[in-house]
Design a protein that fits this description.
This is Peptidase C45 hydrolase domain-containing protein. It comes from Diploptera punctata. By secondary structure, the chain is α+β, with helices and mostly antiparallel strands. The chain has helices at about 10-25, 35-40, and strands at about 65-70, 75-80, 90-95. It has one domain (about 10-95). It is globular, with a radius of gyration of 16 Å. The relative contact order is 0.12.
């Protein structure tokens, strides 16, 4: 975990995958648009440890879902497949409530 103060799994393959995927994310410039975020979360340039994972003969891990929060548009888009090549399966409205009394 990048920000949580708790131990990660010590399984070597998972640690290698996490490290490679974080390094790949570091290669992107800061996103300036929704398209930039989609390109980052759907990236598969690292063939061994892609950010978006699809099960294959050489990779038994998969990305189950991708969620993108649009705080300006107040929506949450959920993708079941790579967001670079697929539309979201659902776009949920976000009704933000004030917690002040």
């Amino acid at each position: 975990y990048l920000r949580l103060k708790m131990p990660e799994s010590d399984v070597k393959m998972l640690m290698e995958s996490n490290n490679h995927r974080h390094q790949c994310m570091d290669c992107f410039s800061h996103p300036k648009s929704r398209k930039d975020v989609i390109n980052m979360l759907g990236d598969q340039t690292d063939k061994r440890y892609p950010i978006f994972r699809e099960m294959s003969d050489s990779d038994y891990l998969i990305t189950v879902a991708v969620g993108i929060f649009d705080c300006v548009g107040r929506t949450w888009s959920i993708y079941a497949d790579n967001p670079k090549t697929n539309a979201p399966i659902v776009v949920l409205p976000m009704d933000v409530k004030s917690t002040s009394k």
